[in-house]
Amino acid sequence: MTTNWLERPNPLSLDEYLALAEDARAEIEVVDGIVTLRERRDRAHQKTAFRLAEAVEAAAAKFRRDHGGGEPPCVEVNTEVELVLWEVPLTVRKPDAVAHRCLGPYEGLTAADVLIVAEIVSRWSDSRDRIHKKGEYAKAGIPHYLIVDFDEIGAVAVEHYALLGGERTYSRLAITHRDRDPCALNLSDPFTLRVEWRELEVAPRG
Q: Putative restriction endonuclease domain: which residues (predicted)?
């Protein structure tokens, strides 16, 4: 395999992708077998993703504690983890935050495992997040997609999209704004998830 994978003449397979060094894979995604560099992510972008993941993980943990009548599903939350949407032609994205069913130590994350996927929008990723990834995540059957805008304070707006009625295109269920709405997120599916704006602030916590 050529070492210059950005100039490969043939689509990349999953085995070839997994054979790349981890530091090389960290900064790329694969779309229909073609390697693409990930967009720039500044500290506020990454901290907003981290805060969102924290809030979702806390809600998932509370759901497990409060769940009655049988064993609740195990949910874990990650940031910037490799997500295989489909293998042929290979498409691998690295969402800013993702809630998914718990996996074994050697299992890779696929779209079938994902409950909620989220992207933090920056000036370098706007069209990629709002058009390309939105279409890909819907096509892959991921039930919920969150698009988060941020500023120097933290999250400023959250768009919530979902698949309805067996469709593979998203319907927008809600859009919240920090200056208008009392909370950033208020979901009942796939588990109760209420996130306050203060939870998505990026300033250091005392």
A: 15-164
- Residue among 26, 16, 24, 145 at smallest CA distance from 87: 16
Return left, alpha or beta for 64; rule: phi > 0 is left, psi -120 to 50 is alpha, else beta. alpha
Tens digit of each residue's pLDDT (9 = 90 or more) over 58-70: 998 888 787 755 5
DSSP β-bridge partners for residue 158: 148, 176
Backbone angles phi, psi at 168, to 5 degrees: -115, 30
Model confidence pLDDT, tens digit, residues 176-189: 999 999 999 999 98
Residue 44 lies in a domain: yes
Question: How many domains, the chain?
Answer: 1
CATH for 88:
3.90.1570.10
- State the pLDDT at residue 3: 47
Residue 31 domain-assigned (yes or no): no
Per-residue pLDDT reduced to its tens digit, 40-85: 888 999 999 999 999 999 998 888 787 755 566 788 999 999 999 9
Domain range spanning residue 164?
Answer: 40-200
**Assigned domain for 45 exists:** yes
If you write DSSP's letter for every residue of 135-179 in order, what string do you get? HHHHHTT-SEEEEEEE-SSBEEEEEEEEE-TT-SSEEEEEEEETT
